[in-house]
Amino acid sequence: MHEEERIVVDPKVMVGKPIIKGTRIPVDAIIRRLAEGMSIEEILKEYPNLTIEDIKSALRYAAKVVSGEDVIPLVKS
Q: Is the Cβ–Cβ distance between 9 and 75 less than 8 Å?
């Protein structure tokens, strides 16, 4: 599954922030925890419904956004 399938935006969930599909966990929460020095293992303990692939997808998504590439996540209606 690619980040396009793992990262979704739904205006009804978390005010439309990009989240991990099937959760209410925003991408920025994952990136912030990594930046604060949390390990992937610690993040997985804090959010047991996440997978390593979810975290990697969040990082790839953030990299695309920062690099200026067009990233248009799926918006659920």
A: yes
